[in-house]
Specification:
Layout: H1 14-22, E1 27-31, E2 37-38, E3 44-45, E4 48-55, E5 65-69, E6 107-111, H2 143-159, E7 166-168, H3 172-178
Parallel strand pairs: 5-6, 5-7
Antiparallel strand pairs: 1-4, 2-3, 4-6
Length: 186
């Protein structure tokens, strides 16, 4: 017989989640009304924001950057304490000093996907047109939408002096990028 025990976790307050949706504990890339994201559902989403985290130092020739793409249910908190749950990052066994994605050698960037509740614009965010949460009024987001945004966010990062990035991902977003995305991360 298996003995199952509950593991205590910190309580998560709804106000913490709500604050994280619009005012994340992450870096932000913001895109204004003049920079809409054309979604596959026919909606031009604007304004919107993308939350992201970085780890390590960018080298002088800007050649050591790696873009890590998370799973659909993940977030940008690869190797830091999660601001809502208080848990360690979801890939802290792979990202950090002396690990395969060594932050002494590499500059790691992880963006939160559009439609998330962890700082990128999504259903838990405030709709600027109504001042209320988007909720079910938030437009449908597809994998190709996410890929186009990855390309745009990488482009915006390059405009701000961040490097071109290599993509580390084996999921749907990479497959879509390889077989039909308009924008590719060089």
């Amino acid at each position: 017989m298996t003995n199952v025990q509950s593991i205590p976790s910190p309580s998560i307050h709804s106000e913490d989640r709500a604050h994280e949706a619009d005012h994340p504990s992450s870096l932000l890339a913001t895109f204004g009304i003049e920079q809409p994201l054309k979604l596959d559902c026919g909606v031009d989403l604007a304004p919107f924001q993308i939350a992201y985290q970085t780890y390590g130092e960018l080298n002088a020739d800007r050649s050591n950057a790696i873009l890590v793409c998370h799973a659909l249910t993940g977030d940008q908190h690869v190797n830091n304490v999660h601001p809502v749950t208080g848990k360690h990052g979801w890939w802290d066994t792979m990202v950090g000093p002396g690990l395969p994605l060594d932050t002494v050698k590499y500059f790691i960037i992880c963006s939160n996907v559009i439609g998330s509740c962890m700082g990128s614009t999504g259903p838990a965010s405030t709709n600027p047109a109504t001042g209320k949460l988007w909720g079910l009024d938030f437009p449908v987001i597809t994998i190709p939408d996410m890929v186009r945004l990855d390309g745009r966010h990488a482009g915006a990062a390059m405009d701000r002096g961040l490097p071109r990035t290599r993509v580390l991902d084996i999921g749907d977003r990479l497959l879509d990028a390889a077989f039909g995305a308009e924008h590719r991360v060089p």
